[in-house]
What we know:
This protein folds into two domains: 2-114 and 297-325, Medium-chain alcohol dehydrogenases, catalytic domain (Quinone Oxidoreductase, Chain A, domain 1), CATH 3.90.180; 128-267, NAD(P)-binding Rossmann-like Domain (Rossmann fold, 3-Layer(aba) Sandwich). By secondary structure, it is an alpha/beta fold. Helices cover 29% and strands 26% of the residues.
Amino acid sequence: MTFRALLATKPHDAISTQVVEFDEADLSPGDVTVAVDYSTVNYKDGLAITGRMPIIQSFPLIPGIDFSGTVIASTNPDFAVGDPVLVNGWALSHDHHGGYAQRARVKSEWLVKIPQPLSTRDAMAIGTAGYTAMLSVLALEHGGLTPDRGDVLVTGASGGVGSVAVALLSGLGYRVVASTGRLEETDYLKSLGATEVIDRRELSQAGAPVANERWAGAVDSVGSHTLANVLAQTKYRGVVTTCGIAQGPDLPGSVLPFVLRNVTLAGIDSVNAPQKVRLEAWSRLAKDLDLNKLNSTTSTIGLAQIDDVARLVLDGKIRGRTLVDVNA
């Protein structure tokens, strides 16, 4: 059987992608086969497709670090034909064919059954970016952060992780400060629940090692000087999570926020998170995320549009979440 897929090749030094007819027999090994409904375009997908980072380790390969769909074949009794499932991360788009296709075959231990009331569409409207946002919220809570402690900052707020983080945190009762490089998105961010919107330039340049305390916690997807300044302005015993490198992977800061203010910096890894953590995150997303807000963050494309959108994601020109309907 053949099906449509976006295939990445590297004939010379540059990565090229093309929608092709792919043979199911050539899928990566696994004990569960899924008829894919949706995938997404995340920041990491942009890095993979453009080759800006060596995400894809084997060519040719179907990219896409996540997908949702329905089980059509399984040799694992925990997953039956007809089960709605999703995958985030693991080896997808590294050395295992990913979600930009109408079929996928994966290891059953990578799968999560989609919790009610989420549909396969909802699951990928959330996608890896939204799941990462939920992992960040869990880390803030694990660090003892509660709404009465003060404001929570979200950097890169108009992007995928940021948009869902704003919606989640505001729904949980936090006063959210959203940092963005696109102030024209202020109304959008306030519709998601942000109380205050600030220009990212307030945080993106070199700053003092410690500065006036502004927020009790933060979700950062930017890195570099932004993260250093976020830490420098975090209140005593505050909690900051880091999950992205949009500005850069460096951290040109100081230990002073940690030793003078007892600030906690929690790293967020969505790729290899233990299954117990994944199940908790998706259970909380099903309970805590306002689906009306989620829908307002989401646009939908087909396989043929992925390449162009991936580049826009890296340039910070995409609002919210981009859903890929692999059957469109």
